[in-house]
Design goal:
Layout lengths: L1 E5 H12 L3 E5 L4 E10 L2 E15 L2 E6 L6 H11 L9 E4 L3 E5 L4 H7 L2 E8 L3 E8 L2
Antiparallel strand pairs: 1-9, 2-3, 3-4, 4-5, 5-7, 6-7, 8-9
């Protein structure tokens, strides 16, 4: 089976739950761009990071990010220091080799859904995150 979740709906959920405006954009079949406006001295600057879905195992979503352009590591370090004021940081774990582990079990609604399904794959089209899955028996 397949479930399509509009990227706009995901950004609306993030805004409602955490009060943060983010931008999501598909840039490839398995890659999406996350953007966030950061206040700097002369105004706001959009900072983006491209994340590639590598795997989903045991309610942990593994994402890779490119180390280019230069500074992505610094941006992620800054965001991970900034995020605790919005989310429980047990949810995001920085791993070796440009990898992030997102612990989906920390999100109650996602945890409940993943108890009922086995995710086969995650990909993106221009407007949606597409989840291929089988119902658990």
């Amino acid at each position: 089976m397949q479930l399509q979740i509009p990227l706009s709906e995901i950004t609306d959920i993030v805004k409602a739950k955490y009060g943060v405006d983010v931008m999501l954009q598909a840039v490839g079949e398995k890659t999406f761009r996350v953007g966030y406006y950061v206040n700097i001295l002369i105004g706001k600057k959009l900072v983006t990071v491209d994340l590639t879905v590598e795997d989903l195992k045991d309610e942990v979503l593994y994402l890779n990010y490119a180390s280019e352009p230069v500074g992505v590591d610094l941006i992620l370090q800054g965001l991970l220091k900034f995020l605790p004021s919005f989310i429980d940081m047990r949810m995001i774990e920085r791993r070796d080799g440009n990898c992030l582990a997102v612990h989906l079990e920390q999100i109650e609604q996602v945890h409940k859904a993943l108890q009922q399904i086995d995710v086969v794959g995650i990909c993106f089209d221009a407007a949606n995150a597409i989840i291929d899955f089988h119902m658990k028996m």
